[in-house]
Amino acid sequence: MTTPTELRAALVDKLTADGTLTDPAWRAGAAAVPREAFVDEYFLTTPGSMPTTYEPVRKDSPGWLEGIYRNETLVTQLDGHLRPSDVQGPVTGSPSSSSTLPALVLGMWQQLDVEAGHRVLEIGTGTGYSTALGAYRLGDGNIVSIEVDPGVGGRAADALKAAGFSPTQVIGDGLAGHEDGAPYDRLIATCSVRHLPQPWLYQVKPGGKILATFSGWSYAFGLALLTVTEPGCASGRFLPGHTSFMIARPHDRPPRQSITLLSGDERPAEIDPSLLGDWTGKWVAQLAAPSAEILGSGGEQILVDFATGSHARTQPDPDGGWTVTQRGPLRLWDQVETAVKAWQREGAPHQQGFGITIDGGGQRVWIGSEDGPGWNLPV
After folding, report:
1. Kind of pairing, strands 204-214 and 184-193?
2. Which of 37, 112, 179, 336 is the most exposed place for a label (fewest CB within 10 A)?
3. What pTM was estimated for this model as a whole?
4. Quick check: bond before 183 cis, omega within 30?
């Protein structure tokens, strides 16, 4: 039988070989911190299920330990309350807490560029595995971690203590930060946000860095590393790769109502709607229509605005192109089309070609440089 130590070593070797782990200090942390101490049960997606169903996996389940050391995100809670121990068979629901795949956790810690003595504010304790890695690297006294869910936070606290770690843990709204422990040298968020919360910009000292994933109601994502330039202000760039996190609960979209697509104004679409299926294309569309949700697949796309009820949809026309129908006070497709064209004129870069500036005028995401095409985030 393969031991946990052997499984950790194999995972470290894999992440080192693929270029994820380049820092010896973080390799040592990955080899030392037992992920199984923080994930005693989890859900696995049932292949091919529609709607998605989840199978509970517990310590007495075959393959439990091996599953923990696969480089995968493990869902640990559904619908804000349901745990694997609460069910006996497959169940549906929306993931609300998870243990993020080790490659992403360790990669983000490396991207945060911490140094000995740095104090870090972590938004989202989750299972506590990421918190433990930070505490191993920097020491318990330099880590403050906030978790909004008391149940999740309590289980993480127990796991951290059992594993020999004692960072500062706070149950509360991570979007408010933790002023009592400020100022911080670094802030890392393991949830996504529609905009960067103002408290973070005041609790991280000038010259300090914030690593956060930006998202929205269409669930397109972009990971950015920002430097605080002065209290309340920051600037930075988006990073390579494809990073996604559950959106912070206060930033999540309202409950979706039933969708009724009525007739409206029609015209030919001037871009290929399938561009909204591209990772960055959908990100650009979300920037252009921040209060809308984008649904659909391929060229048949539906946009529904939560604020106004406006909607747009694309359908194939007999000539091989696409027709767009729009209704409501917002011309959602016009907004998206203008943004996608601007992105294409800049060479349609991946998100690493984007940056962000936050100051008294708002939070603006731009392409190329600060004077390039850009969009204000909803705040």
Report:
1. parallel
2. 179
3. 0.93
4. yes
Give the three-class secondary structure for 79.
Answer: coil
Residues pairing with 212 in the sheet = 224
Query: Residue 367 is encoded by which pair of tokens?
Result: 């392409």
| pLDDT for the residue 261 | 76
Domain ranges of the chain: 4-99, 109-250, 258-345
Q: Per residue in 268-315, pLDDT tens?
A: 999 999 999 999 999 999 999 999 999 988 889 999 999 899 999 999
Question: What does the block give as tokens for 281?
Answer: 């294309």
**pLDDT of amino acid 161:** 97
Give every residue of the chain whose pLDDT is below 50, as ranges. none
- The CA–CA distances, whole Å, from 361 to 118, 233, 316, 371 equal 30, 10, 41, 14
Q: Which residues of 91-103 are buried (b: 16+ CB within 10 A; e: fewer)?
A: bebebbbbbbebb
Residue 263: its pLDDT value, please? Answer: 85
For domain 258-345, the CATH architecture is: 2-Layer Sandwich (3.30)
Distance, CA of 165 to CA of 134 (rounded, Å): 10
Q: Classify domain 109-250 by CATH architecture.
A: 3-Layer(aba) Sandwich (3.40)
Annotated catalytic residue within 98, 99, 215, 310: 98
32: left (phi over 0), alpha (psi -120 to 50) or beta: alpha
- DSSP symbols for 47-104: TT-SS-EEEEEETTSTTHHHHHTSSS-EEEEETTTB-GGG-SS-EE--EEEEE--HHH
Amino acid (one-letter) located at 157: A
Helix axes 24-32, 4-17, angle to 10 degrees: 150
Coil, strand, or helix at residue 83? Answer: coil
What stretch of H or E contains 153? helix 150-162
Residue-level pLDDT at 262: 75
Reply yes or no on whether 98 is catalytic: yes
Average pLDDT taken over every residue of the chain = 94
**Letter for the amino acid at 18?**
D
Quick one: pLDDT at residue 224?
98
> Phi first, then psi: what are they for 139, rounded to 5°?
100, 145
